[in-house]
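FW: tagging you since you asked about this chain on Friday. Here's the raw sequence from the shared folder, copied in full. Didn't touch anything.
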Amino acid sequence: MKSLLNPRDEAEVGERLSRLRPESPRRWGRMSAHQMVCHLCDSFRAAMGEKGASPASGLFQPTAFKWIALYLPFSWPQGIKTRPEMDQEDGGTRPVQFERDLADLRGLLARFAQPPRDFVRPPHPIFGEMSERQWRRWGYLHLDHHLRQFGL
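HL: got it, structure written out here
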């Protein structure tokens, strides 16, 4: 199972990020490639307690939904609405300069994945409390989902 606990998996997403361009066409969704970079930055900041995220409410129990999303062998579906604080057309960080924002993402990814942690993880807004292993799995899957969105 791929995870940011594995340096090879972290290197793989880093290589995929290096192929992303501002003009990379999306396969689904509304975000541009640049908005996606900022969305991922906001998501990692929230995962490190540096940005707030409103908790989701819905039909799913966080524990069951978390297990399905993190461990069943299928790609995350398209079209799941993000939290408003991570939506670049709502409360998310607006894109400024692609190369700078991409460098920010690389720095946040390195900090998120590097032990020992220098931050306290809050509960995930959808999945609730998560172990370090679960957070690292989530980090890989979230990156993978959005890189696939742009054909990477």
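FW: The chain has one domain: 7-149.
HL: agreed, and The mean pLDDT is 91.
FW: great, closing this out.
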